[in-house]
Amino acid sequence: MSNNEYYLVWEDTFSHGGPVDRYKWDFDTGTGGNGWGNQEAQYYTDRIENARYQGQRLIIEARREDYGGQRFTSARLKSKHAWTYGRLQVCCEHFRSCFNDIF
Q1: Closest alpha carbon to 79 in 20, 34, 17
Q2: I need a labelling partner for 56 at 20 to 30 A (CA). Which of 6, 13, 25, 49 fits?
Q3: What Gene3D superfamilies has UniProt attached to this entry (predicted)?
Q4: What does the domain layout of the chain look like in residue ranges?
């Protein structure tokens, strides 16, 4: 499939400040006791302190704080949508660039 045959089916531009859009994202909360955790020292929350839109970015912030019996908090998000194949474009500060991938 050539590039001009692709069409946009989902995006999030993080253009508004505040809480994460619950129509687009789900949160895993807790310590992963139901099979997805790795004995991490953090408690995953859905709080705005740990995940929010700010300055056209999705901020996922780990915090040193006692919460739910753990020493740290963070957020674990996943899209409410899934695809078998397609083209993915992500821009993130961690990589300081954009990348494209086809899966």
Answers
A1: 20
A2: 6
A3: 2.60.120.200
A4: 3-102
